[in-house]
């Protein structure tokens, strides 16, 4: 298999500290101050942190009490998701003026395929710059962008010059860019995989590229083939405007740790009912029920069961969650419970994309 580059022009736009930036925009007195969106209570979790807070090490998904220890002057504000959705809608409206191939990943980031764009601009770099300027002029927020030949490289590149910057990885620069990259920067390589790779002497993309596909699959399973391809610039996933959900979930963090299974079942009943509403609103059902348990020591455990039929009913979800709860002894008191449903009927109806077994080198001549 040889190295490959694609002929697409992909932009990954990522808003800078989106939730926190919206709050600072709407409340000028908060500008320049360390800010966290989320719960500042003992049980709360940081949803987003301003760059002023990040200097102290405050990050999203961090427990509120820990964030406050790192930054005693941290200001907590409650999230306003309706407002964030409103702003996100304005930003997406700008995207669609350039291309219909927009794949939102969340409220604050999206992929855009501008290979053939509505402005007729052959330079993806200039398109990204124009989009970022319009977001600032029309919405009042800054955004960062990554521009390259595929989604994977564009997403990695968007993090390079944050905040309020962009980076282009031209076709002829792709291989060198990936070889010089620390493996922890590879999208999909988490802390556990990073540690495992480091132990094997795999620190950079060049180290990763030196390993055979057989070696990588032997040590990392199916993900090994993925790593083998992406380090060679092979990532053929197209920008999908109608991005399908792979799962739906509902969860609750409790004000006090729960040790009694009776209390856990009561909470699970409410969670199952909430999940049923979300499934109904999205008109989907699924077969795989997963119970999520976060213990008081913050360790996370999931237990799953795949049913022989599609379900969306709260009673069935609850009964399956109960079975999973009793599947094994609880290791500690619990601070969070959640139920998710995957293997959805929308996915079942779609055929799986065929894996490309052979790739050829495509040399690009157009201007990025």
TrEMBL record:
Active-site residues are 109
What PROSITE patterns does this protein map onto?
UMUC (PS50173)
Q: Enzyme group, top EC level?
A: transferase
Q: Which cofactor does it need?
A: Mg(2+)
User: A single GO BP annotation from the record?
Assistant: SOS response
Cofactor binding note: Binds 2 magnesium ions per subunit.
Which keywords has UniProt assigned to this entry?
Coiled coil, Cytoplasm, DNA damage, DNA repair, DNA replication, DNA-binding, DNA-directed DNA polymerase, Magnesium, Metal-binding, Mutator protein, Nucleotidyltransferase, Transferase
Q: What is this protein called?
A: DNA polymerase IV
> Which organism does this sequence originate in?
Aquimarina algicola
